[in-house]
Amino acid sequence: MTREFIARIVGMFIFGILGWATGVWLGGRLDAPTVRYMLTLSLAGAALGLLLTPYLIIRPVRKIRDHIRQASAQQALVGVVGLVVGLIASALLALPLSFLPAPWGKILPAAFAVLFAYLGAAIGIIRQKDLFALLSGRVSKEGAGREDDIVLLDTSVIIDGRIADVSHTGFISGTMVVPRFVLNEIQHIADSSDPLRRARGRRGLDMLNRLQKESVSPIRFADLDIEDVREVDDKLVMLAKRLRCPILTNDYNLNRVAELQGVPVLNINELANAVRAVVLPGETLSVSIIQEGKELGQGVGYLDDGTMVVIENGRRHIGQTVTVNVTKVLQTAAGRMIFAQISEGSR
């Protein structure tokens, strides 16, 4: 039997008993045959309990459980503190409110307890940064607190591997978080029957191990999930929106989807392009030609940062290191390409 079915049965009995008690009360007040009210209202209560119990208990509890699972430890802490402060404030008001005439003397203390508990928890979660900043004694010029941020890692940036080198330099501030569903996807790729996918998955696991050992920025694995969404990229975007944090990726499609939904993105490819050395037409470079190009007679080489250099009439120099003159620099979606000609002294 499922939990929902058991809850329906229990709710049916509870509401049936309440209906029975209501029938006894009505029968006494109206001076009428009590059995008729007892049976009618107990059957009506049992039917209502059977139908409404999941909506009154099971589903709200599931919603609360899901929110608790998705909340960070910091959010849970400030929520509990806010709840306690709200209950203390309502307790201070309970005594004077209890002197009000009936029924307000009984209703208002309970109503204010619920209201203040909700407001305390909500204010604590919404203003958590300010609260932690005040507790730690760090307040910004605008009066808002500052704290270490978190950044979510996606599958592609972990498998790519460059994140290990970037994090080792200390450029990433705050904590790198790997959600459980991202780790599960990497494990699934590592268990693939396709040798290439399996190698990529194992590379991702190796990168995570390296990050734990060498990264200057802390990394942690969080048991966070978005249960109503199946795709990993969609889960990541939704989670980033809830946590109000950026996503670290090198996936072009994820980058665009996240930007459309207002989620900040840190793209490793864009970072790599930004830190490459600036090369201008007319400059001289030393390049090792390793393969032929697409056009007739072209040769292709690469700079130390991975920038492709296409050399006109360089095919006959494959396997040699030559001096070239830059003729054009082209910026594409895939990165930067340099076009060059072999200098007179290398021909």
Query: What is the CATH top level name of the largest domain?
Result: Alpha Beta
Radius of gyration: 32 Å
Helix content: 55-70%
How many E-type strands? Answer: 10
Q: Separation of termini?
A: 83 Å
Overall domain count: 4
Low-confidence stretches: 137-148
Q: Look at the helices and sheets and give the structural class.
A: alpha/beta
Taken as a percent bin, the fraction of beta residues is 15-25%
CATH homologous superfamily placement of the largest domain? 5'-nuclease
H and E order: HHHHHEHHEHHEHEHEHEEEEE
Task: Please tell me about this protein's structure.
- This protein is elongated.
- The chain has four domains: 1-69, no CATH class; 71-147, no CATH class; 150-273, Rossmann fold (3-Layer(aba) Sandwich); 284-346, OB fold (Dihydrolipoamide Acetyltransferase, E2P), CATH 2.40.50.140.
- It is 56% helix and 16% strand.
- Residues 137-148 have low confidence and may be disordered.
- Helix 3 packs antiparallel against helix 4 and helix 8 (180-190) crosses helix 9.
- It has helices spanning 3-30, 34-70, 73-98, 104-126, 128-136, 155-160, 162-169, 180-190, 195-214, 232-243, 252-260, 268-274, and strands at residues 150-153, 175-179, 219-222, 247-249, 265-267, 284-292, 299-302, 308-312, 321-332, 335-342.
Secondary-structure topology with pairs:
Blueprint: H1 3-30, H2 34-70, H3 73-98, H4 104-126, H5 128-136, E1 150-153, H6 155-160, H7 162-169, E2 175-179, H8 180-190, H9 195-214, E3 219-222, H10 232-243, E4 247-249, H11 252-260, E5 265-267, H12 268-274, E6 284-292, E7 299-302, E8 308-312, E9 321-332, E10 335-342
Parallel strand pairs: 1-2, 1-4, 2-3, 4-5, 8-10
Antiparallel strand pairs: 6-7, 6-9, 7-8, 9-10
Helix pairs in contact: 1-2, 3-4, 7-9, 8-9
